[in-house]
Every structure is written in C-alpha cells, then in structure tokens.
C-alpha cells in the first residue's frame, strides 16, 4: 500500500513540475525540449530526484540542469502550492539521457537495415 502511495506522489510531482517548467520558468538555459522522465521520491517523502531529459545539443542538457538547480527553490514553492501534501520534498535534478540513447540505437538499427537492403 505504501509503495502505491509513493508511486502516486511521484506521478503527481512529475506532472506538476513539468507544468511549472513549461509555463513558469523564464531562465533562458531551460528552454527547448525538456521532459521530466520520472521522479523517485524517498520513502519518508523528504527528497525527490527529478530525472530530466533534454533534446538538443550535447551542452544543452548541462545548461538546463544548471538552470533548474538555480530555480529549485521556486519550483519547490510552486509545487507546494499545487500539491496537496503535508511536506514538499527537496528536489534534485538529474540529467537522464535515456531518450537520446533510444533515438541513437533506433537510428543505428535503421542504418543496419538500410545497409542490408543495399547489399
């Protein structure tokens, strides 16, 4: 039962933080295609790791994470106003490259298929 509660809280945080980043963050470092992949909250709900994927150049991800770290207090405050929880967790932003990795693997598979068709 407790795991289900944490899962629901993780999804709620993911949804709200996504909206905040998309609509309220004005930092130019946090632009482009930013996606919240997942959120992992500790069992005591005091800390949450927010996994962020950034589509773009290699250094866009690092700049986006820096911008999000600078805005973490603002994001946490907005999260607290929109979330119905007794305690709002500290947010830690982590760059997640799983989407880019998946795209890269997909492109390599397509290239292999093209090479086989050409032979």
Q: Can you describe this structure in just a few lines?
A:
The protein has 119 residues and is an alpha+beta fold. The protein is built from 4 helices and 3 strands.
Helicity, as a percent range: 55-70%
From the alpha-carbon coordinates, what is the Rg to the nearest angstrom?
17 Å
Number of helices: 4
How would you write the strand order of the largest sheet? 1-2-3
Structural class from helices and strands? Answer: alpha+beta
Query: In the CATH classification, which architecture applies?
Result: 2-Layer Sandwich
> What is the CATH superfamily classification?
K homology (KH) domain
Assembly state of the chains shown: single chain
Beta-strand percentage range: 15-25%
Largest sheet: 3 strands, mixed
Overall outline = elongated
Parts with pLDDT < 50 across at least 5 consecutive residues: none
Compute the average pLDDT. 88
End-to-end C-alpha gap: 56 Å
Number of domains: 1
List the helices and strands and how they pair.
Layout: H1 2-23, E1 33-41, E2 47-55, H2 58-70, H3 72-82, E3 90-95, H4 98-118
Parallel strand pairs: 2-3
Antiparallel strand pairs: 1-2
What does this structure look like?
Helix content is 56%, strand content 20%. The chain has one domain (2-118): K homology (KH) domain (GMP Synthetase, Chain A, domain 3), CATH 3.30.300. Helix 1 (2-23) crosses helix 3. Strand 1 (33-41) and strand 2 form a beta hairpin. The protein has helices at residues 2-23, 58-70, 72-82, 98-118; strands at residues 33-41, 47-55, 90-95. With 119 residues, the chain is of the alpha+beta class. The longest helix has 22 residues, at 2-23. It is built from 4 helices and 3 strands. The protein has a 3-stranded mixed beta sheet, sandwiched between helices.
């Amino acid at each position: 039962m407790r795991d289900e509660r944490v899962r629901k809280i993780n999804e709620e945080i993911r949804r709200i933080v996504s909206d905040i980043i998309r609509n309220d963050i004005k930092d130019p470092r946090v632009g482009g295609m930013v996606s919240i992949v997942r959120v992992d909250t500790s069992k005591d709900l005091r800390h949450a790791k927010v996994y962020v994927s950034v589509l773009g150049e290699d250094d866009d991800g690092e700049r986006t994470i820096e911008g999000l770290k600078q805005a973490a207090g603002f994001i946490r405050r907005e999260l607290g106003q929109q979330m119905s929880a007794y305690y709002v967790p500290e947010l830690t932003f982590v760059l997640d490259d799983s989407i880019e990795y998946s795209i890269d693997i997909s492109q390599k598979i397509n290239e292999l298929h093209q090479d086989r068709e050409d032979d």
